[in-house]
Amino acid sequence: MNHVKEYRQQRGLSQLKLAQAVGVARQTINLIENDKYNPSLKLCLGLAKTLGTDLNSLFWEE
Amino acid sequence: MNHVKEYRQQRGLSQLKLAQAVGVARQTINLIENDKYNPSLKLCLGLAKTLGTDLNSLFWEE
DNA sequence: TAAAGATGTCAATTATAAGTGACATTTCGA
DNA sequence: TCGAAATGTCACTTATAATTGACATCTTTA
């Protein structure tokens, strides 16, 4: 479980807009939000910066 | 730049010991420490937990 | 000063992240 | 309530993370 979807929606972005901002395909965002796979660190950093947050807020549990 | 090497040395672990603890090859740790590639989120989480820290401490800049 | 441990790096292979195109369903504003 | 936007998912391909084995160099320590 991660918090990408929550942060994306708070920012009023669609999966497509977020994908374009980060430079990946829309499907990649969809898969990450639904925990279907394991993104790279570079992509996690891009998501955190684009969403105005940090790695722990998006991906750290406990 | 990341802080894996600093945390590993603080814990008194070799690259090999850390690799075994996290479940990857020694070369993988070496490449990450020298910024030769882009680890997966799952591996970053494993490193953070094994080293008793979190994602931001190891991988977040600024 | 020899030997063992630790590190950096290479080549080749395997596993999987990520891309592309497409289609069905759901959501939401005109 | 119709149509467009948004989302979830499929199959297939491409890029690259990660593995394995090997070897050279550099540190330590016996």
From TrEMBL, chains A, B:
InterPro entries referenced in this protein's UniProt entry, alphabetically: Cro/C1-type_HTH, Lambda_DNA-bd_dom_sf
Entry keyword set: DNA-binding
Q: Does the keyword Oxidoreductase apply?
A: no
Q: What PROSITE patterns does the database record attribute to this sequence?
A: HTH_CROC1
Q: Name one GO molecular function term.
A: DNA binding
Q: Where is the HTH cro/C1-type domain?
A: 4-58
Pfam families named among the record's database cross-references? HTH_3 (PF01381)
Q: State if rRNA-binding is listed as a keyword.
A: no
User: Per its UniProt record, what PANTHER family does this chain match?
Assistant: TRACRIPTIONAL REGULATORY PROTEIN-RELATED-RELATED, TRANSCRIPTION REGULATOR
Q: What is this protein called?
A: HTH cro/C1-type domain-containing protein
Q: Supply the source organism for this entry.
A: Levilactobacillus acidifarinae DSM 19394 = JCM 15949
